[in-house]
Design a protein that fits this description.
Length: 138
């Protein structure tokens, strides 16, 4: 699995993504409280909701941050209905290009609707390329 996009949505964009922010924050709270089963269920619902509002079929990992922002990481795999928690699948191998010199990950913020549309277009284009590659291999 490869990362095809990683971005963050600021809390100033809260109105546009109110439900997504609330779901991501609730998921974080359940994990923080040690309720892994409920956290996993809500994590799947959060990813499904993101896929629904964006039209992207990919596996996504969504994480609420303490600054009340959310990080979204989109992978090249198609969603399989399983829990894909950012803690489980996001590691150094996936996000090398987002690491700064101190080894911390800096996920770029999306600051406008146009930038968000550009990222979604990029993801859709990568998906089309992957489909064409699979067809060529047959």
């Amino acid at each position: 699995m490869k990362v095809i996009a990683a971005f963050a949505l600021r809390n100033t964009e809260y109105d546009r993504n109110k439900v997504l922010f609330r779901m991501a924050m609730a998921t974080h709270d359940f994990y923080f409280d040690g309720d892994w089963e409920t956290g996993d269920e809500l994590n799947i619902r959060t990813a499904n909701y993101f896929r629904k509002i964006t039209g992207i079929p990919n596996i996504v990992a969504i994480k609420w941050t303490i600054e009340n922002n959310i990080n979204v990481i989109v992978f090249d795999g198609i969603a399989d209905g399983k829990n894909h928690c950012v803690h489980d699948i996001v590691g150094p191998n996936y996000l090398k290009k987002y690491a700064n010199k101190d080894g911390e990950y800096i996920i770029p913020f999306i600051d406008s609707d146009d930038a968000f549309d550009d990222v979604l277009t990029h993801i859709h284009n990568i998906n089309v390329l992957h489909k064409l590659e699979r067809i060529d291999k047959k």
